[in-house]
From TrEMBL, chain A:
UniProt entry keywords in alphabetical sequence: Iron, Iron-sulfur, Magnesium, Metal-binding, Oxidoreductase, Thiamine pyrophosphate
Keyword Oxidoreductase: yes
Domain called Pyruvate ferredoxin oxidoreductase beta subunit C-terminal: residue spans: 199-264
One GO MF term attached to the UniProt entry: metal ion binding
Stored PANTHER family: 2-OXOGLUTARATE OXIDOREDUCTASE SUBUNIT KORB (PTHR48084:SF4), 2-OXOGLUTARATE OXIDOREDUCTASE SUBUNIT KORB-RELATED (PTHR48084)
Name of this protein: 2-oxoacid:ferredoxin oxidoreductase subunit beta
Gene Ontology BP annotations: cellular respiration
Pfam families hit by this protein: PFO_beta_C, TPP_enzyme_C
InterPro entries in the record: 2-oxoacid:Fd_oxidoreductase, OFOB, PFO_beta_C, THDP-binding, TPP_enzyme_TPP-bd
Limits of the Thiamine pyrophosphate enzyme TPP-binding domain: 48-195
Cofactor: thiamine diphosphate; [4Fe-4S] cluster; Mg(2+)
Automatic annotation (TrEMBL), chain B:
Any one biological process term the GO annotation gives: response to oxidative stress
MF term (GO), any: oxidoreductase activity, acting on the aldehyde or oxo group of donors
Domain Pyruvate/ketoisovalerate oxidoreductase catalytic: 14-175
All copies of domain Pyruvate flavodoxin/ferredoxin oxidoreductase pyrimidine binding, residue ranges: 210-450
Residue span, Pyruvate:ferredoxin oxidoreductase core domain: 475-554
Protein name per Swiss-Prot or TrEMBL: 2-oxoacid:acceptor oxidoreductase subunit alpha
Key words of the record: Oxidoreductase
One Pfam family matching this protein: POR_N
Length: 288, 577
């Protein structure tokens, strides 16, 4: 069984010192080891952004695609090889601006994939513009007078889109994040995980300290029941979306792959491609 | 007796024209006739004039005809819009219910048949299309048993009562016509065919079948006219072969999902038309940059924007060839017949994996949707070549990755499928080194660009052009692509009679352009006419760019939404000669 060190490669990330994304990298490596994976069995598919570089920083199959499209690529890969553990990851702009459509549809499709949004509430890679996660009034290069748009609530969006696993964590809490990613990997369905991952260079408002002050763990909520969707939604709303932990999990619905007619347990990429002459003749005969 | 004729049925969309057309043409196919269909439809589902035209022939045909022998009309609008196509002595068979009139100046015989009346007597006006089917069959003096057999297949699962009612409607329609005409009309009697049951399908069926046979097991796609039939074909058949179709949220998801699946080692394609193709461009670039095989079908329709969504055009050529930012290796194939739709799709999958790049199969609406007779498809001709996939990889020293982008002489690198032992490498749309790691080094950049583009230098494609060149130095060389081939040939036989000699080249490999193959034919022709369904002469421009000879190349363009008629091409060529 591989240790978390075997999921490390020798590449030095080009993230700024102190960037929240380092912890996400570590948490994925630990969660992969804890779930008993080998590097060959894991694929990390990421988008474009500072966060998007993460697939290059983990010793596993890695694909760094195009902005906002990590999820459809990850889903195609999963259909090709359901034996692979597939993690998709990217920024808040990647998954909640340019890729929102894919996020919502990946959620309702519910393939067995773990998706991690590295939410720094800003565009890091393009050097500090507003993101759909930026608060109303938030000043950035592209919103010098403050953002005039409301922030998008990712967990409420996920819940209302029919997510079967919704969780949130924070880069300072490596233990909780590792745990959640592990749970996400084990969940048979689409796992939506938002991680507060501060951008120390461009976001001077939503800092480590700011998150620390504002987040509330579901563990501190009395009688919190993560199988209760209505409770999850109301507690999220009560706490302005700042809850951490596994917020909702539906263990009754199995993943998409299990519902596809004719779809086998064995990876599709291992199956015979060539048709027999008989099968071919039968297909052609339909047109006579 | 005549050897071929054309039949058209028209009315409002949603009136059951499709099933009349299907039953009538299936019966003709069983009798051994060659058929060539053309659907005129609008993007409305109910209402709006629509018609289906079928050309019926004893000998192979690959074009619609200039004129019409029989027009079956469900409303006066059908007559008003289409009667001008009728040849002298043509026949209109119309529903008596709307008191049909023959427009002034049209020399056609009218038979008013109570389509609706008879259907209502049998219980439902919905069956008026079956009365029309019977009337059509009787005009051609077809054996009614064949029609009955097809009806049994079509309605069998709805129960015998329904089958019997429909057969009754057909018989009553036939009897009515026989009483009216007092026996078969000699000018509509087509020579009997050989009774051989040939394939009868649309191009999109052939593409779907080709994909399945090529080993494609996954299709993500978003519905659009005229591409949806490819996905509809595959969703019905893939489950048996453990595969599936996903209707994605958009075409960006479709192309990127297909890329993900191909990266994962499963042959996967997507299909769309212009608007979807535009959305896919960034994804196609990713496939080119990451050297991931993927097959994209573009069924061209009238553009730009939503354009003429249900009409014929060939205006995406520039988009499929040039439409991605940056410079990538890419192959574009343009089948021109149903058989080629099948074989080219199979070949597209092989090319995509051999050259590890996107392959676009570009058709047009008439080829994708026109139902036609096709020659038998040959199992022996099907080969699956997956290119340089490696499955055994030696362990490497710590920290080194599999050289997925190894610089090689032919530019093609070994490819490991994720999950292969010791097969870890990185994939990125960012410029990268041999292991796939991002790299901005100038020297690496140049090497990698050269490596990727080198793959296109020696590509081996069967028949980059199709040639019919009986003349050494013809008066005319006619060049076309896609569905226009048969129409060009029909025009050429008329040019022959005028004493104008012509050769014909169909471009099948659009990119990389088969310059050396086409050049000798251009050189030897006195004049070149490029026939294409677009407004700017995109194929002609490609030829001028790659081959030269701009001074002797002329365009014959049509972009009114309709396919070329043989007479269009015949007349223009006569003038241009
Ligand atoms: C189609 C496209 N549009 C724009 C860009 C430029 N771009 C790169 S990353 C990015 C946003 C990054 O923000 P986010 O997704 O939050 O990631 P972060 O850098 O904050 O981790 C943008 C706009 C691009 N690469 N592709
Ligand atoms: S700019 Fe911000 S998000 Fe990007 S690496 Fe630096 S700290 Fe991280
Ligand atoms: Mg961000």
């Amino acid at each position: 069984m591989a240790t978390f060190k075997e999921f490390r490669n020798k590449i030095k990330p080009n993230w700024c010192p102190g960037c929240g994304d380092f912890s996400v990298q570590a948490a994925i490596q630990r969660a992969a080891a804890n779930t008993g994976l080998e590097p060959d069995d894991l694929a990390v598919v990421s988008g474009i952004g500072c966060s998007g570089r993460i697939s290059g920083y983990i010793n596993a199959n890695g694909l760094h695609g195009i902005h906002g499209r990590s999820l459809p690529i990850a889903q195609g890969l999963k259909m090709a090889n359901r034996e692979l553990t597939v993690i998709a990851a990217g920024g808040d702009g990647d998954g909640l601006a340019i890729g929102t459509g894919h996020t919502v549809h990946a959620i309702r499709r519910n393939m067995n994939i773990t998706y991690i949004i590295m939410d720094n509430q800003i565009y890091g890679l393009t050097k500090g513009q507003t993101s759909p996660r930026s608060a109303f009034g938030f000043k950035t290069k592209s919103t010098p007078e403050g953002s005039k748009e409301a922030a998008l609530p990712p967990l409420e969006l996920a819940l209302s889109s029919g997510a079967t696993f919704v969780a949130q964590s924070f880069s300072s809490n490596l233990k909780e994040m590792t745990n959640i990613i592990e749970e996400g990997i084990k969940h048979d369905g689409f796992s939506f995980i938002n991680v507060f991952s501060p951008c120390v260079t461009f976001n001077k408002i939503n800092t480590y300290d700011w998150f620390k002050e504002n987040i509330v763990s579901v563990e501190d909520i009395e009688n919190y029941d993560s199988s209760d969707r209505i409770m999850a939604m109301s507690k999220l709303m009560e706490n302005n979306g700042m809850l951490t932990g596994v917020i909702y999990q539906d263990k009754t619905r199995t993943s998409y792959e299990n519902h596809v007619p004719g779809f086998k347990e064995e990876a599709l990429n291992k199956q015979e491609l060539k048709l027999s002459e008989e099968e071919f003749n039968e297909l052609v005969a339909e047109f006579r | 007796m005549i050897s071929q004729l054309s039949w058209k049925i028209g009315g409002q969309q949603g009136e059951g024209l499709e099933s009349t057309d299907r039953i009538f043409s299936t019966a003709l196919n069983r009798l051994g006739y060659y058929l060539y269909g053309y659907r005129h439809f609008s993007s409305r589902i109910k209402g709006g004039h629509t018609n289906n035209k079928i050309r019926i022939s004893k000998k192979p045909i690959r074009s619609i005809s200039d004129d019409l022998d029989i027009l079956v009309a469900f409303d006066q609008e059908t007559i008003d819009l289409n009667a001008h196509e009728l040849c002298d002595g043509g026949v209109i068979v119309a529903d008596a219910k709307f008191s049909p009139k023959v427009p002034e100046g049209i020399k056609a015989r009218l038979f008013a048949v109570p389509f609706t009346g008879i259907a209502e007597e049998l219980g439902t006006s919905l069956m008026k299309n079956m009365v029309a089917t019977g009337a059509s069959a009787a005009l051609l003096d077809l054996p009614i048993d064949i029609i009955k057999e097809v009806i049994k297949e079509e309605f069998g699962r709805k129960g015998t009562a329904i089958v019997d009612k429909n057969i009754e409607a057909v018989s009553r329609g036939a009897e009515f016509i026989k009483d009216e005409t007092g026996g078969p009309l000699p000018e509509l009697q087509i020579e009997p065919a050989d009774g051989q049951r040939r394939l009868f399908m649309i191009g999109n069926d052939a593409i779907g079948l080709g994909a399945l046979v090529a080993g494609c097991r996954f299709m993500p796609a978003y519905p659009i006219t005229p591409a949806s039939e490819v996905m509809e074909y595959l969703i019905k058949r893939l489950p048996k072969y453990n595969g599936t179709v996903i209707q994605t949220e958009d075409e960006i998801a479709a192309i990127t999902m297909a890329i993900g699946a191909n990266y994962g080692g499963v042959r996967s394609l997507t299909a769309s038309a212009g608007p979807g193709l535009s959305l896919m461009m960034e994804g196609i670039g990713l496939a080119g940059m990451t050297e991931t095989p993927v097959v994209i079908v573009d069924t061209q329709r009238g553009g730009p924007s939503t354009g003429l969504p249900t009409k014929q055009e060939q205006s995406d050529l520039n988009a499929v060839i040039y439409g991605t930012h940056g410079e990538i290796p890419k192959i574009v194939l343009a089948p021109s017949t149903i058989e080629e739709c099948f074989y080219d799709t199979v070949e597209a999958f092989n090319l995509a994996e051999i050259y590890q790049c996107p392959v676009i199969v570009v058709t047009d609406l008439q080829l994708s949707l026109g139902k036609q007779t096709a020659e038998n498809l040959d199992f022996e001709n099907i080969e699956i070549n997956r290119g340089k996939i490696v499955s055994e990889i030696d362990p490497r020293e710590d920290g080194k990755l599999f050289k997925r982008y190894e610089i090689t002489e032919d530019g093609i690198s070994p490819r490991a499928i994720p999950g292969t032992k010791n097969g870890i490498y990185h994939v990125t749309g960012v410029e990268h080194d041999e292991e796939g790691r991002p790299s901005e080094a100038a020297d690496n950049r140049q090497k990698m660009m050269d490596k990727r583009l080198r793959k296109m230098e020696n590509i081996q494609v069967t028949n980059p052009i199709l040639v019919d060149a009986p003349h050494e130095t013809p008066d005319l060389l006619i060049v076309g692509m896609g569905s226009t081939g048969g129409t060009i040939d029909e025009a050429r036989s008329r040019l022959d009679k005028d004493g104008i000699s012509s050769n014909h080249v169909t471009v099948r490999l659009m990119h990389p352009f088969p310059t050396e193959e086409i050049k000798p034919y251009i050189e030897k022709a006195k004049k070149v006419v490029v026939v294409e369904n677009n407004a700017t002469g995109q194929l002609a421009s490609l030829i001028k760019l790659n081959v030269g000879y701009a001074e002797k190349i002329a365009n014959h363009l049509k972009y009114d939404g309709n396919p070329f008629l043989p007479s269009d091409i015949h007349e223009t060529c006569k003038e241009l000669k």
